[in-house]
């Protein structure tokens, strides 16, 4: 058998995890020794962004390498009525390029194990996960292919599920390791997408009697984070047992910020939560772990990278050419990953979320609610409303918690960035407000 030269790639994409939920960042919510060891053994990026502060569009962005509004998805996908009210499609089009499809062209076996939430569930008939380039898949209720072991009721989880809510991440890790073992010797790409630590937090059978009481308490979050960390440790141990560790790139990040933040404990003081474009809603933990290829102990404080960058980066690391007919929004930062050099971002990063109407989930606390548009340009981050009445400007190098609006003192810069945000939205939006 010829030696495998292309790396296995595992993208661990956890759900609603704030930067303060991992103790390697200095977070105090819960000790996460296995995630910390992964960080110490790999490279940490401190300025890594998701492309949306909520699940469905963030997953579309990481899957396609494009801003999600280009695929007409701007908030969490739900019923057809909800999706119409939010001016969005019911599911990600199968015409979209995906990392999985691209890596299949160069011989990769592909698997998706965990949450999908890019279409399916409720009253939506969506294409199978296989149509997006996955050879094998196991998913939850919010998908076109719900696993019966996880979906005894027509909701996110139920007390009669064969695989209990608190055992799901373990189940997804088991399926990932089984997939890698079955395809050993062939390069594999795997989405390991747990729905932890998304609420409701249920860590054992005793809590089922409480119904909703305590499901959203900080005390119940802690054991969920503890088990998530244990399962990450099981995954890394399993790679060693299979003899795959040296040829497997493991990436760890989250889809969006936490909800709630418990007075910003879960964001390490950053302003913003899930559904907010302030830093706490979009600035994510990010670890790249590849023993022998990525130097241990690296902490990148300068590179500005995004989930939209993963498509071009991972495709080229796997030896695949990007589809030439596609205009991607992301940048390849693979050289930075492997060399430890700073990635010099060529393009600004843009966001859109909220559209300021009751159909969108927005933070309850006024101070956490951001304007609907945002852009990151070097150290500067600017916000605007569609009508231009809201304009905020922050220098993240001196004010990472976004406390002091400098728009008046830097009017020319703020107005230039505001114009660029409005133009970006107009050029990329697939639906009318």
Automatic annotation (TrEMBL):
<keyword id="KW-0378">Hydrolase</keyword>
<dbReference type="InterPro" id="IPR000917">
    <property type="entry name" value="Sulfatase_N"/>
</dbReference>
<comment type="similarity">
    <text>Belongs to the sulfatase family.</text>
</comment>
<dbReference type="GO" id="GO:0004065">
    <property type="term" value="F:arylsulfatase activity"/>
</dbReference>
<feature type="domain" description="Sulfatase N-terminal">
    <location>
        <begin position="7"/>
        <end position="319"/>
    </location>
</feature>
<dbReference type="Pfam" id="PF00884">
    <property type="entry name" value="Sulfatase"/>
</dbReference>
<protein>
    <submittedName>
        <fullName>Sulfatase-like hydrolase/transferase</fullName>
    </submittedName>
</protein>
<dbReference type="InterPro" id="IPR017850">
    <property type="entry name" value="Alkaline_phosphatase_core_sf"/>
</dbReference>
<dbReference type="InterPro" id="IPR050738">
    <property type="entry name" value="Sulfatase"/>
</dbReference>
């Amino acid at each position: 058998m010829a030696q495998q030269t292309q790396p296995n790639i595992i993208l661990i994409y956890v759900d609603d995890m704030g930067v303060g939920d991992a103790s390697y960042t200095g977070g105090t919510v819960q000790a996460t020794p296995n995630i910390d060891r992964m960080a110490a053994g790999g490279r940490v990026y401190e300025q890594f962004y998701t492309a949306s502060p909520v699940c469905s569009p963030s997953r579309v962005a990481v899957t396609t390498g494009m801003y999600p509004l280009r695929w007409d998805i701007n908030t969490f996908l739900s019923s057809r009525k909800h999706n119409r009210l939010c001016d969005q499609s019911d599911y990600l089009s199968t015409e979209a390029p995906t990392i999985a499809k691209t890596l299949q062209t160069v011989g990769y076996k592909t698997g998706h194990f965990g949450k999908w939430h890019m279409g399916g569930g409720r009253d939506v008939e969506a294409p199978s996960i296989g149509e997006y380039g996955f050879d094998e898949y196991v998913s939850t209720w919010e998908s076109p292919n719900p696993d019966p072991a996880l979906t005894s009721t027509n909701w996110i989880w139920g007390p009669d599920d064969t695989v209990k809510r608190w055992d799901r991440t373990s189940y997804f890790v088991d399926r990932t390791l089984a997939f890698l073992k079955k395809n050993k010797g062939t390069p594999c790409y795997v989405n390991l997408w747990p729905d932890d630590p998304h609420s409701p937090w249920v860590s054992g059978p005793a809590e089922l009697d409480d119904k909703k009481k305590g499901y959203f308490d900080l005390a119940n979050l802690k054991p969920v984070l503890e088990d998530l960390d244990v399962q990450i440790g099981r995954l890394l141990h399993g790679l060693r047992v299979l003899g795959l560790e040296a040829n497997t790139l493991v990436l760890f990040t989250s889809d969006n910020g936490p909800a709630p933040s418990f007075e910003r404990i879960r964001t390490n003081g950053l302003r913003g939560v899930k559904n907010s474009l302030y830093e706490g809603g979009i600035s994510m933990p990010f670890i790249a772990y590849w023993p022998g290829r990525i130097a241990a102990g690296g902490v990148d404080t300068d590179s500005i990278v995004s989930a939209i960058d993963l498509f071009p980066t991972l495709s080229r690391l796997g030896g695949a050419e990007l589809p030439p007919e596609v205009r991607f929004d992301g940048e390849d930062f693979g050289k930075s990953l492997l060399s430890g050099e700073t990635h010099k971002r060529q393009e600004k990063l843009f966001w859109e979320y909220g559209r300021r109407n009751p159909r969108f989930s927005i933070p309850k606390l006024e101070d956490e609610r951001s304007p609907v548009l945002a852009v990151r340009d070097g150290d500067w981050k600017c916000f605007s409303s569609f009508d231009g009445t809201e304009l905020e400007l922050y220098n993240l190098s001196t004010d990472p918690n976004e406390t002091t609006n400098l728009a008046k003192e830097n009017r020319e810069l703020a107005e230039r960035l505001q114009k660029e945000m409005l133009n970006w939205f107009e050029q990329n939006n697939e639906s009318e407000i």
